[in-house]
Amino acid sequence: MPTINWFPGHMKKTQREIKENLKLVDAIIEIRDARIPRSSANPDIDKLCEGKPRVILLNKSDLSEAKVTKMWMNYLSSENVRVIEVNCLNGKGLNQIKPTLDLLLKEKHDRLKAKGLVKIQMRVMVVGIPNVGKSTFINKMAKNNIAKTGDRPGVTKSKQWIKTKMDIEMLDTPGVLWPKFEDEKTALNLAFTGAIKDEIMDVEELAYNLVKRLQVFYGNKLKDRYKIDEINEDPLETLNSIARRRGCLIKGGEIDYNRIAVILLDEFRGGKIGNISLELPNEEVMGE
């Protein structure tokens, strides 16, 4: 798999905007994909946010393996960082955000109250890589369709302030990815979950690599979903079995790899194969 270079100008602009607007906010809300908490984090975010209090939302937690998500919550938490598992589509977990921010900002709020301020409006910056659910989160919090959403990475183009009924005002920014994917496993994780556009990937190779990864820890889920008898040592043979069961064949009985690749990726991303986590806190990648 080739090294991916993808750093559009608007992403570079976003990094500059984050640094410029930090002084306007009390805290950061960072959204990650619960299935890949390491790969879906921008590696520059710690440096960019300069020690600001941060709440990490592990989104799409309905698609990840619950016990692994709990491990990540413990691993990522610190004095200045709190972690909440959420589902931005149905709003699960979002009611924990305000009390979590209150806890992180308690000292600052106590100082303001001592000066006689009764109503405190918190201002937060919302950050996250493309397609991790940032716009869905903002729309859910604002309870209207302010932020433009879409399944194509990088849909949000410019910053905007959004008010909520929780006394939280949110600053939206476009999704951020880093300039270069040196680590193939990180690039694959992002591609599996749709954070990298399918148009720049070979979907057939991607599906093969997904089967290769899943059959190590989630072989039974593959067997159950696709009604195959066994997991073959060769991932290609496992993929072939899945394709035959789904009738993805072309003239002469050959495998239609493009068709089965699209089905497999769609069903993984939609959680139809089951609850799956691709990374552990103490290991680079599950299955490696």
UniProtKB/TrEMBL annotation:
Where in or outside the cell? Cytoplasm
ATP-binding: present as a keyword of the record? no
Keywords from UniProt, A to Z, are: Cytoplasm, GTP-binding, Hydrolase, Nucleotide-binding, RNA-binding
- Please report the stretch or stretches of sequence annotated as the CP-type G domain: 12-179
Function summary: Required for a late step of 50S ribosomal subunit assembly. Has GTPase activity.
Spell out the family assignment given in the record's similarity comment. Answer: Belongs to the TRAFAC class YlqF/YawG GTPase family. MTG1 subfamily.
Q: Which protein is depicted? A: Ribosome biogenesis GTPase A
What is the protein's species of origin?
A: Clostridium sartagoforme AAU1
- Designated gene of the protein: rbgA
